Amino acid sequence: MVNKNSFSPSRVALAISASLLCLSSAAMASESDKITELEERLNALEIELIEAKDAANDIDRVKFSSGDPSPEFISKDGQSTMQFTGRIQLDYVNADPFYTGSKLEYEDGLNDVSFRRIRFGVEGYFSNTWKYSLEFDFDGISEVEVKDANVNYRGFDNSEIKIGFQKFGFGMEATGSSSQLAFLERASTDTFSAERAVGASWLYKGDGYNFTTGYGVTALINDDDLNEKQDVVNARFTMTPIKNSDHLLHIGASGLYTKNNSNMEETRYRARPNTKVTGRIIDTGKFNTASTQHYGIEAAYQHRNFLLQAEYMMAKTDDLFVKGDNMGSATFNAGYAQAIYTLTGESWRYGAKKGTFKTVKPENAVSAGGYGAWEIAARIDVADFNDTDAEIYGGKKTDYVIGLNWYIENNLKAQFNYVHTQADYEESYTDINGVEMYEQDGNIFQARLQYAF
């Protein structure tokens, strides 16, 4: 007979196992809490390390440059950025009556206030080797145009490749930004600059020189004309043989080749009298040509706060047809010379990367209690769109421009221009009084307030 109260090894083993299991669970729970606590401490230390690294590198997530109202957003690792860009140009123009267009039709004088440009965009970097740009232009009426939509690869030493919708470099003034002009409008040489196109370009910056070349197609982006109407090939070389604190000498040359496709062979050269709101007072009218070649030379000399600048350009057409007859080729040309003197002593800034000049920044802005920067400027602008051998009589004009610029702040300026224009024609036109005329002249007063960032 077995005694129920007697010692049982199985019961003792069971009790020991249960005790060990409880202790093990408690130990595991304690270790899990410790691991969680360590992870939280590691995360906190990682955040402190990133913040310390940012502080050491002086990296701000949102940064404002001196005098720039547009914030620059910077990624956590400092590899990518985004910044808003824009320019608003409000113009006042008072112009005499002119005869404009290829038929020289009468156009009333005007007294006009309008927006010349309203542009907004974004630009920045990503992965520290790519730069991007997207910009739109609002004409103040209805249309919205794409001005830039491209990316730049900057992973090479001293060079970069740009891909997308872009402006191809040709000439000094046309390559620069419209917000950096000494006068309200570019000179007549801008007639020969390339339209924006979809393609690729390569820029190389050496020691005291730079070179750019590219290929593109004028595609259906900003107009409702035929798509892919032209192939565009450009090249531009500039150098600064003299560059020191007191003197700078810039010289350069450009070339541009455009090939029309079989569905779009129309070409036209025309120019306004250094203003935007009037019509073109010289105009070749449309003619058919297979391709065009444009050549340009440029030079600038700067001595402290005095800047001289000049350009000359020529256009040559191939397989020219006028009224169904093959006239072989035709040539047209334009050029300007201008001088700028900054009365308050500031100097125009030279951008060696693109071989262009940027306007001065006032040393004593109005917001700091000063009077800003003041400068005077003068320009002679000549364009000849006649080729009698090819039976094209577009006319010849000469514009005399005097300007006064007031740089109120780094990003705010006022400009005043007086333009006197003279035009001569190989063929006569009939004015509103029934008189046969071979020339015309007129005056234009215009002013601009520009805010750019």
Automatic annotation (TrEMBL):
It holds the Pfam family Porin_O_P. Residues 28-62 form a coiled coil. It comes from the Bacteria. Residues 1-29 form the signal peptide. InterPro entries: Porin_dom_sf (IPR023614), Porin_O/P (IPR010870). This is Phosphate-selective porin O and P. It comes from Shewanella piezotolerans (strain WP3 / JCM 13877). Keywords: Coiled coil, Signal.
